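Possible regression after last week's pipeline update?

I re-ran a chain I had predicted before the update to compare outputs. Posting the input and the new output here so someone can diff against the archived version. Not blocking, just want to make sure nothing changed silently.
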Amino acid sequence: MGEKLLRAESASPLYAQLMERIRMDILQGVYPVGDRIPPEHELEERYAVSRVTVRRALQELTASGLLERKQGKGTFVAQPRKEISERGVQGFHDACRESGMMPSVGQVWVRTLPASPEDREDLSLAPETSIIEIRRVLKADGMPVVLESNHFSMAYAWLENGSLRGSLYRLLQEYGIRAEKSKYDLSLKDANREEAELLQVEEGTALMLEKQVVYDQKGRPLHTSHRLIQGRKYTLRI
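New output (post-update):
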């Protein structure tokens, strides 16, 4: 198309100008959410820039979350992520009952893992420490709808001996620990083979990914949570 939209004499680097141009094109619907953007050689021609400039701009836009790479398929406009700083906490079991559904727990896995950098930051842990992971399949009216992975510091290792087929928050409340608030964000993720099998969906199905850091009644980090939600069968209320 040969659209001469960028200025080499500008103080702003060409890749930064291209980033802004592509961002504006996305906002204006030239590249709709979920659609594949043109390959590098077409962008090179469309915006009259080098392949190096195109690649740098795409890398930066992908890192920022505006675009996403799909192996073997190309680069796509990412679904917008909804990010909210803080909210109250409601467990799956209570949310299910409020919606008129019967909650239950399917498979449960518990293991001890080295804390990742993300764990150490979110849970305020010291270097070279471990965490306990509780991974569960949550069901509504007998249908698997959520695959969750909760990370706790080793101070909560006793949870392994508790009833993990009920509400974790009610179990914690028995010991005077209340989940009061959380920081979280939402995005979309395509189900891999294991996730698809556990949630009884087709591989590649779009799942809602909810990441949380949950705090107790004293404002201390209680646990992190990664939940993959089968949105066709379960609605997450915010």
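Follow-up from reviewer: compared with the archived run. The first helix runs from residue 14 to 27. Marking as no regression found.
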